[in-house]
Amino acid sequence: MSSSVHGPRHLSRAWPLLLVRGVVCAAFGLTTAFWATPGDTAMRLMIAAYMLLLGVVNWRLSVTVQDRRVLSYALTIAIFGLIVLVAPSRAMLALVAALGFTLFGLMEATVAWMSRRAHPVVRDGAIIGVAMAGSGIILPLVQDLGPHGMLGVLGGGAIISAVIMLIGALTVRHEAASGSLPA
User: What is the pLDDT of residues 58-81, one digit of tens each?
Assistant: First the structure.
């Protein structure tokens, strides 16, 4: 699909989903920051839930902006979220989650880069994608630190994503309300 699907008209309808995605990232990031002693099971459930929620929100976003490329990375993160649930060991969980977040981030960054002229919020997706991919790349390196360390790495990427996503969502909402964007 062409980058015109990321035009202002589609973005003005997408701001609530951008806001929800920002809240999902913030909730995950803050939980990982303040939970001092998560166990392996809690880590597995948190990572899987985060990945599945990202998949669902991005799936809805793909419908709103009418872009199959967004659907592709939504499905990618959701499928890896399901695999995380059945990963037999911490090492396998780290590998699967790392691969899922890295692919998701690279796909999102690529789509954002290809659509970067549409609107500044779309361009923000490149930063978010790099943050997600970066936390995915680092994840296997910290698996010896246990659940707190692994969740901390993913939570760091989530916090970066949350801040950018929330600012972008509120910017699009303001521009749509003030008439800067076509409805």
Answer: 999 999 888 899 999 999 999 999
